[in-house]
Design brief:
Helix content is about 50%, strand content about 10%. Helix 6 packs parallel to helix 8 and helix 13 packs antiparallel against helix 14. The chain folds into three domains: about 230 residues, Serine Threonine Protein Phosphatase 5, Tetratricopeptide repeat, CATH 1.25.40.10; about 110 residues; about 160 residues, Glycogen Phosphorylase B (Rossmann fold, 3-Layer(aba) Sandwich). The chain contains 25 helices and 13 strands. The longest helix has 17 residues. Helix 21 links the parallel strand 9 and strand 10. With about 575 residues, it is α/β, with parallel strands linked by helices.
């Protein structure tokens, strides 16, 4: 079973036995028998080659399509696997077992509503399957239908109280609901039933990290890796999670080493970089950069692109006047980065999807000797929180646009405060990292303050709610697309008296440009690097929740500080 609680394995011994049982006498039988043997030996390239040859002889062979699908899935080619499973499903008379395979894969691809429908078909043919119930509960919880997920798991536990996987899955639902303390009890029970169970250790570590106990989390992550139960993909997921806990503890050297897991081909959603240059690891003992040409390629989300640019001045200094620095960033960031690093060549990276994975390149860039992902320099230049420079900014907003916004804002009364309350990526556990909009009432109703909307995306419902329920008219800045016009957004934040919000792209832009920021954050967020501050942007003031999802007292604290005119 995968660590993401996607239960069952397409190439398990039981699955292979069922496949072989379905082999009849045909021109493709011998090839498929060898393909099944290759699956059993985990030689998925060979299995795919043999299945492809079988399909050349019998294009309508449902079993050949299923073998091909299993091989594609285990090779990480999820799009091809989904297509092949669909062909198998049609040709095998909508076999519930194949529906289960497709449902499980759909879960891994984040297609939770599709997974739910397929898993119901699977359970119709296999009503006693615990794997099927675990997967259905997974699909429901990812759609935030927690009560339904819990009901399915509780019913299964009543019939099978000895199954550690069911207890683990129930704990995962509770963590996602914000009940991490209670969830620990269920993970403990799973580990009592099956000591050393890698998935239970991983999720117990996540719960501990959620509660701010990163030391306990590191212990469980380490135990999960030592147990030898996990796949390569799962190993990298655990290492990455352990990296964040090390960083949250302020153990930056260990954290950045473990953070390399994000670049592994076995990582859950790795970005594949296509750069014709030698990788440069920024290891402490790596060769000097002086006089070389180097590309830094942005990675992960847009907010991370901005945050990790904190080290770009260090890289430019290491290259020296004879060196050449190139930066490949998200297209909306090009003007801001070009202004901020005038000696660098700044281009937009191109990101495309290939078989469900992001492939990133910089086709407009000329030849360079070396390249590295944007986060890599932290491994050399930020080995402790003390290594972060106390500088006002490392990105430079457009001065003319700052003055433009200051002139417009001067017409508004009182202190001008911009707010952001959500991210466009609100799903699963990430949803709990943001306070419900209703809790913003005391902040928005602060006397002597003009509230300015900085929230990108569709937020009309929240703005209407503020007007009708709070009696607050949130000013919408004219002539700006808050999602697309990022250079102008950066200028707007610099014109405001204060920006308040949760960690998202705009908050990072404001922080990097030196604007005054109050950041609302979960307890012991890893980006605080074991401090009470925010080393990436030294002017930022942090307001942290003391419990998972405990946002009401935090928002009251923010409102009180704003009312008192608290220093930024």
């Amino acid at each position: 079973m995968s660590i993401d609680v996607t239960a069952g394995a397409s190439a398990s011994a039981a699955a292979l036995t069922r496949l072989k049982a379905g082999l009849g006498a045909s021109a493709a039988t011998a090839l498929l028998d060898r393909a099944c043997a290759a699956l059993g030996a985990q030689d998925f390239e060979q299995a795919l080659a043999l299945a492809s040859r079988a399909l050349e002889r019998e294009p309508e062979s449902g079993l050949a399509w299923r073998v091909a699908a299993i091989a594609h899935e285990n090779l990480g080619r999820h799009g091809a696997a989904l297509d092949a499973y669909g062909c198998a499903f049609e040709r095998l008379g909508q076999d519930p077992a194949v529906a289960g395979d497709i449902g499980r894969l759909a879960l891994r691809m984040g297609l939770h509503d599709i997974a739910e429908q397929l898993l119901l078909i699977y359970l119709g043919g296999h009503p006693g399957s615990l794997d099927g119930r675990i997967n259905l509960a997974h699909a429901l919880r990812e759609q935030h239908r927690y009560d339904e997920a819990i009901a399915i798991l509780r019913e299964a536990i009543q019939a099978h109280p000895e199954d550690a996987g069911l207890w683990t899955s129930l704990g995962v639902v509770l963590v996602q609901q914000g009940q991490s303390e209670t969830a620990l009890t269920f993970f403990d029970e799973a580990l009592r039933l099956e000591p050393g169970l890698g998935r239970a250790l991983y999720y117990r570590a996540n719960a501990a990290a959620d509660l701010g106990d990163h030391r306990r989390a590191v212990g469980d992550y380490t135990a999960a890796l030592a147990g030898g139960q996990l796949s390569g993909t799962d190993d990298e997921r655990v290492r990455f999670a352990a990296a964040l806990s090390h960083l949250a503890l302020g153990e930056l050297e260990a954290g950045w080493e473990a953070y390399l897991a994000r670049l592994s081909p076995d990582a859950t959603h790795p970005v594949q970089f296509q750069v014709d240059a030698e990788p440069y690891a920024f290891a402490p003992d790596a060769a000097p950069l002086e006089g070389r040409s180097l590309l830094l390629m942005a990675e992960q989300g847009l907010g991370d692109e901005v945050m990790f640019a904190n080290t770009t001045p260090d890289v430019a200094q290491a290259l020296g006047p004879a060196g050449r620095l190139a930066l490949a960033v998200e297209r909306r960031l090009v003007p801001l980065f070009a202004r901020s690093f005038p000696a660098a060549e700044v281009v937009a990276h191109r990101t495309e999807k290939a078989d469900g994975r992001a492939v990133r390149s910089a086709p407009e860039l000329g030849a360079v000797e070396l390249w590295a992902p944007m986060a890599a320099p932290a491994r050399r230049y930020r080995r402790s929180a003390a290594d972060f420079p106390d500088r006002a900014r490392f990105l430079i907003a457009d001065p003319a646009r700052v003055e433009h916004w200051r002139a417009l804002l001067a017409e508004k009364p009182g202190r001008k405060v911009g707010i952001l309350w959500k991210s466009l990526k609100l799903h699963g556990e990430r949803l709990r990292q943001f306070a419900p909009f209703d809790l913003w009432r005391p902040v928005l109703q602060t006397p002597g303050v003009s509230i300015v909307n900085l929230q990108y995306g569709d937020c009309a419902a929240e703005l209407d709610h503020a007007r009708e329920a709070f009696g607050v008219e949130v000013w919408q800045p004219p002539g700006i697309d808050l999602k697309e016009d990022l250079d102008d957004v950066a200028a707007l934040t610099c014109a405001l008296g204060l920006t308040i919000g949760f960690a998202n792209a705009t908050i990072n832009l404001a922080g990097a440009c030196g604007a005054p920021v109050w950041l609302i954050t979960p307890r012991a967020a890893w980006t605080q690097l074991g401090t009470d501050a925010y080393p990436w942007y030294p002017q930022v003031r942090c307001f942290s929740a003391s419990t998972p999802g405990g946002w009401e007292p935090v928002m009251d604290e923010v409102a009180a500080a704003l009312k008192d005119g608290g220093a930024t």
